[in-house]
Automatic annotation (TrEMBL):
Gene Ontology molecular-function annotations: triose-phosphate isomerase activity
Keywords for the protein's UniProt record, in alphabetical order: Gluconeogenesis, Glycolysis, Isomerase
Coiled-coil positions: none
Pathway info: Carbohydrate biosynthesis; gluconeogenesis; Carbohydrate degradation; glycolysis; D-glyceraldehyde 3-phosphate from glycerone phosphate: step 1/1
The EC number(s) this enzyme carries: 5.3.1.1
GO biological process, one term: glycerol catabolic process
Family, per entry: Belongs to the triosephosphate isomerase family.
CDD domains: TIM
Name the UniProt record assigns to this protein: Triosephosphate isomerase
The species this protein was found in: Chironomus riparius
Catalyzed reactions: D-glyceraldehyde 3-phosphate = dihydroxyacetone phosphate
InterPro entries with a match to the protein in the record: Aldolase_TIM, TIM_sf, TrioseP_Isoase_bac/euk, Triosephosphate_isomerase, Triosephosphate_isomerase_AS
GO cellular component terms given for this protein: cytosol
Superkingdom of source: Eukaryota
């Protein structure tokens, strides 16, 4: 199939110059599987600092970007600004942005399209809450979120989808490999039917939610899991083992 495994770290609102220095030393020492694309989502204020400490092979992502080039949007940042300070990726639509900051499917879709148009690569996040899963709405929710993004995206080359069930984020409750694979396969089928077989075959779908060194191998061996988006464990040396899950 030839989809390059892609592992993202999402540092969220964590870190300081001191801790980022330590983490970048660990990542630089690796060793990291050269066949894996690696991206770390860094708090915006530390992007240039992290970029200066990491090898070129590890890419840096912002964790949010607005849908305008510049202007009166206090507290926001433009994709061009992230690019300017060394991030060529951006994470958009994380469940924390959706839930805590009230971002809608439509806003997220607009942000994804804008960041792509500005030349960034995007990790677009989707996923159901526990309540939605228990109500049997997992696929409906994931398809609705993906459909909104598909309404604005024409070229999927620079898009990675991160399937992150909200109930698995930061809870230590990982989706089982079978549960994750089931949703990933359903998403891939959705792409075949609603976008194209070519995009469906090529698009990387990451799993996120309590990924650790202990569970990454089994998750990563599922046919439709093409990488991970890692929160808590991306702040620890164990991230190296997660990057190397396929070795
Ligand atoms: O939200 C996540 C990555 O974006 C997952 O977080 P945890 O790995 O801490 O569960």
């Amino acid at each position: 199939m030839g989809r390059k495994f892609c592992v993202g770290g999402n540092w969220k609102m964590n870190g300081s110059k001191a801790s980022i220095t330590d983490l970048c030393k660990v990542l630089t020492a690796g060793p990291l599987d050269p066949n894996v694309e690696i991206v770390v989502g860094c708090p915006a204020v530390y992007i240039s600092f992290a970029r200066s400490l990491l090898p070129e092979s590890i890419r840096v992502a912002g964790q949010n970007a607005y849908k305008a080039k510049s202007g009166a949007f206090t507290g926001e940042m433009a994709p061009s600004m992230l690019l300017d300070v060394g991030a060529d990726w951006v994470i958009i639509g994380h469940s924390e942005r959706r839930q805590i900051f009230g971002e809608s499917d439509e806003l997220i879709a607009e942000k994804v399209a804008f960041a792509l148009a500005e030349g960034m690569k995007v990790i677009a996040c989707i996923g159901e809450t526990l309540q939605e899963r228990e109500a049997g709405q997992t696929e409906a929710v994931c398809f609705r979120q993906t459909k909104a993004i598909a309404a604005t995206v024409k070229d999927w080359t620079n898009v990675v989808i991160a399937y992150e069930p909200v109930w698995a984020i930061g809870t230590g409750k990982t989706a089982t490999p079978a549960q994750a694979q089931e949703v990933h396969a359903a998403l891939r089928k959705w792409f075949t039917e609603n976008v194209s077989p070519e995009v469906s075959d090529a698009i990387r779908i990451q799993y996120g939610g309590s990924v650790t060194a202990a569970n990454c191998r089994e998750l990563g061996s599922q046919p439709d899991i093409d990488g991970f988006l890692v929160g808590g464990a991306s702040l620890k040396p164990e991230f190296v083992q997660i990057v190397n899950a396929k070795q």
